[in-house]
Amino acid sequence: MTDRATSDAARQPGRPAPEPEDGDVDGAGPPRLEPRPLDRPAVDASAESVFGRPAGLTSGFATPAARSAAPPLATAAPPALAAAFGRPAAGGDALQRPPGDAAPGPGADDPLWAGAEDDPWRDPASGVALGPPAVDPAAPAAAPTGEGARLSLREVLFGRRVQPRALALLAVVALAVGAVGGLVGRFTAEGASSLTEPGATLASVQPATARPPGSVADIAQRVVPAVVSIEVRVGEEGGTGSGVVIDGSGFVLTNNHVVAPAAEVEGASIETVFSDGTRTRAAIVGRDPKTDLAVIRVGVTNPVVAQIGTSSALAVGDAVIAVGSPLGLAGTVTEGIVSALDRPVRLEGGGNVNAVIDAIQTDAAINPGNSGGPLVDATGAVVGINTAISSIGGGEGGSIGLGFAIPIDDARVIAEELIRTGVVKHAELGVNARSVEDDTSAGAQVQNVQQGGAAAAGGILEGDVIVTLGERSIAGADELEVAVREFEPGATVAVGLIREGRPLTVSVVLTSD
């Protein structure tokens, strides 16, 4: 209590300061050990006036007398801030007081200053000091708490340390957890055992199969409905082929050798079967044995019509798809590429005339029964009519990757003429020729010239070797025949010859067959 009173007295204004204790010098405290000298730069005078210690102070703490005599540490506030936040000019009160004209001070009969002499917290001139800890020294210290004693199973069950209600609740919870675990185990065991039972049935799922536009599957879905199987029956015999619907009126384009037996024998029948199983009779509209093409018509309302493309835009290596009924297997789709273009192929077995076609060669699998079906490109457009295959050995050989199709550009012209008139007229040169070649060239050698024909009128002689017709080179007799059919009857064509070793060009006006 003496130290607190002394400190309080030192903080009260107007009271004498306590006498310095023994060993103090002028109240400055015991002697201090001076620090080692440091090389300190010079301090700016303006900065020292603002942030330096007041004159006469050598430490961070000063006596109350020194603090009361020390000049202010901060410079005067600007006039605008002083006017806004400063004390009124008429009064010098350190604390705000209730409004009124009276200005009592400490000790006056004023509720604001009541007891201010004994309470340094109410004295605005009181100095800063550290007070005692906010702990009552007379209060007994709290005993440290340690870990409680642990109960054994015997004490829990029989020692009456736990309430019976808590034990019953614990037992109920344990039984419930055990029951739930048993049910889960039973259902799991039943589900696992069902996989090993003979009568187990697995749930079906939807396969995540991607069929992007332009894929073979996408093309097949669009083309197969426009392809028909053709069944020809002649007496007790029959044959199968394929066809493609080219017009909404029911016109179907196919090969002549597919329907020729029914055209040449009375009482024969032709039936077509669509991909959805629809079966209907068909009638022959027209045939062209020289190109092995024919058009039949079916009595179906609004059939699916195939998209017709162009064969002139094909290039070797383009992807193609063959659709038809090989060996009677309707809706068969095979894939390949264009192996060659403008390949002259002589067909056999198509009637009295062995046709020669300027074919598209492909390695797509083509077998007997594919004849008359479409060859489509990567967009699903028809670019050819599958017609022939090459095989090794005699008999009904299978596909060895050498299939031939009539270009759709040629087939379209023939089909349109057959639909209009039922017959097709072709240009004729009027010669019989055979393929010849030597070490440097090849061509078609004229064997005989028909009297009154285009060749005779143009001055072509027997023994001449035809090497060009128009702008097309001729490498053999088959190529000469397909080259002539590229022109209309009455067209004037330049024919390049080799006569007795000398080149010669003659002009020929083609006639009609």
Question: How would you describe the overall organization of this protein?
Answer:
21% of the residues lie in helices and 25% in strands. It has 513 residues and is α+β, with helices and mostly antiparallel strands. Among the domains are: 43-79, no CATH class; 216-390 and 398-421, Thrombin, subunit H (Beta Barrel), CATH 2.40.10.120; 427-512, Pdz3 Domain, CATH 2.30.42.10. A 6-stranded antiparallel beta barrel has the order 1-2-3-6-5-4. It has a 6-stranded antiparallel beta barrel with strand order 7-8-9-12-11-10. Strands 14, 15, 16, 17, 18 and 19 form a 6-stranded antiparallel beta sheet that branches. A hairpin with a 2-residue loop joins β18 and β19 (502-509). The radius of gyration is 59 Å and the shape is elongated. The relative contact order is 0.07.
Give the helices and strands, then pairings.
Elements: H1 2-11, H2 45-51, H3 64-69, H4 79-85, H5 153-158, H6 164-193, H7 216-223, E1 227-234, E2 237-245, E3 251-255, H8 256-264, E4 269-273, E5 279-288, E6 293-298, E7 319-324, E8 332-346, E9 356-362, E10 374-376, E11 382-389, E12 403-407, H9 408-421, E13 427-428, E14 431-437, E15 442-449, H10 454-458, E16 465-469, E17 472-473, H11 477-484, E18 492-499, E19 502-509, E20 511-512
Antiparallel strand pairs: 1-2, 1-4, 2-3, 3-6, 4-5, 5-6, 7-8, 7-10, 8-9, 9-12, 10-11, 11-12, 13-20, 14-15, 15-16, 16-17, 16-18, 18-19
Question: What keyword list fits this structure?
Answer:
6-stranded antiparallel barrel, 21% helix, Trypsin-like peptidase domain-containing protein, Peptidase_S1_PA_chymotrypsin, 513 residues, single chain, Thrombin, subunit H, PDZ_sf, hydrolase, disordered N terminus, elongated, alpha+beta, Pdz3 Domain, 6-stranded antiparallel beta barrel
